[in-house]
């Protein structure tokens, strides 16, 4: 069979084919630009993400290496009689953090004749000079009958930024779990590798608050004697008062106090 077509129909068909090819070329051109733009944006996002990861990773790894932290004696916000408690708690925190991690701990003491004041910024800066620490810890304590309140603050030295703080308002008997929690929170904040077994042992070492209280009283007296060379006669009678409490812990404390008195002055032997 034969197919006939007018010239005009052939020309119209050819024009349609040409237009179709132009549309395809235009579409392909636009798609190429879209693909190029997508690749560029994706690459930019990847670069930003990689840079952010590098910066954060560098910062984290710096913290995770062996940071150093200065610990100030906690400030006593109740009677002068309770100063042993604030000093004792800060000493226990120093001991506990040192036991459960590899962080470098530097205890800081006020200069002789200078009262400890955790809100004195100039005093803190003065005491931190030359210590080469990354962080410092300070706090306050209060005792009211069988209630205790401990407020802890952790600062980054380079910008004096408070990176963690917490207030514990609880019963005396909770002092062991409070110490454990402070270690845990500081460890988490500084990305420290914490020995969980040793951390658990902090709250399991004793559940007797009276024994703990006697212990930090004894340490306070002994440390004060070593620094200020107190009269050993006072130390002797401090031992006498503890021996009258008739508990194993208090008598052991009294014995240690007697030994300290004898070490200072052998006439007490």
From TrEMBL:
The keyword Transmembrane is annotated on this UniProt entry: yes
Protein keywords:
Membrane, Transmembrane, Transmembrane helix
**Matches recorded under Gene3D superfamilies:** TolB, N-terminal domain
* Positions of transmembrane segments: 33-54
Name by which UniProt lists this protein: TolB N-terminal domain-containing protein
Species per Swiss-Prot/TrEMBL record: marine sediment metagenome
Task: Tell me the lineage of the source organism.
Answer: unclassified sequences, metagenomes, ecological metagenomes
